[in-house]
# Entry
Amino acid sequence: MADPMRIRAQAAGGVATVRILMAHEMETGQRKDAAGKTIPAWHITEVGATHNGKTVLSAEWGPAVAKNPFLQFNIKGAKAGDKIVVTWKDNRGDSRSDEATVS
# Structure
């Protein structure tokens, strides 16, 4: 399983800013290794986030997203103590889910 995501969620004025750093190689399937063989595609295809169980983000990604992607978004109405859960799934069927508490 992949390394945990680093999730930071900070509330200010009724809006929480959520910052996520995901550890993933994100291979496009177009690069070649030293022997000239194509490196197989391996990238995140789906990302989702919930705020206290309610879906607030749903995204479909492709191979053009950079290695170890960073994602930031805002949630209106979030306050300190609320729970944020972020999940991703990749094209090999691997998935990861991590959570953070809004501070």
User: Anything to note?
Assistant: The chain has one domain: 6-101. The domain at 6-101 is CATH 2.60.40.10 (Immunoglobulin-like).
